[in-house]
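Q: Convert this sequence to structure tokens.
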Amino acid sequence: MWFIFALMTTLIWGLAELFYKKGANEKEKYSHLKTTIFVGIVMGIHAIFILLTQNIGYDFKNILVYLPVSFCYIFSMSLSFFGMRYIEESISDPIENTSGAITSILCFLILGQTISGLSIFGIISIVIGILLIGILEIKSSNPKSKRLGKKLAIIAFLMPFLYAIFDALGSFLDAYYLDITCSPLLNVTENNIELVANTSYELTFLISAIILTIFIMFKKEKIDVKNQKDKILAAVFETTGQFTYVFAMSGSAIIAAPMISSVCVVSIILSRIFLKEKLNLKQYSAISLVVLGILILAVAEV
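A:
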């Protein structure tokens, strides 16, 4: 069953990325905030469902305790949603998936953990691929700066990199919060610590959604739910993928992890088919280096 759940997670998160991109309207000023709102609402519903149906002894103070991790994850996703309005998914998604490599580097530099030779090779492949993507993007025959303006084009291209950094920081902090021997989370055991952490994250996301909704209403911007189907579907797939991910990793993590890391491959294929994104051979070659590095790192670190 774990194999089925791993396959489901990969496909579901790939679909989430597709609908995130479809819902990212370049001309809609607060498109990225609206996406964040819908994700927060769906995750909040899931958190409430867990609290009502499972006795995990949840202490609501954990929302504050887990806030540093939640902030990193939510902020990184908001940055990603902004970048999606302007950057091809085929480029942004592989860059964002390098967060695993950054996490490994943080663990090596700060925690003094060792990194295998295979992991180093994977990280080098990712770095080279990202540099090539950047160079090719700048030298593109139709640079985004002509359409967006130089300043906005640079900001947009930085978004997937910032996502990777903040997502990696969240993962790095998670290593501390999910360690039962030193975790600051309240009323946790080995059996419920993951659920408590995830519930805290989802409740924080819900609170963020409420705050952003008030902000958008203050700006007199309407949230027309009927025209936000892509954003809602992306939020549903994101939350569903989180659910199947837990079951996938509880089986054979050594195989499930690299399978799930290949979600960027699924995203690229779906973007090519449904979004008609077209890149040249050099760009796909650079992206392939990043994807190869991600897969190598996933295999080496499990």
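DSSP finds 14 helices and no strands in the chain.
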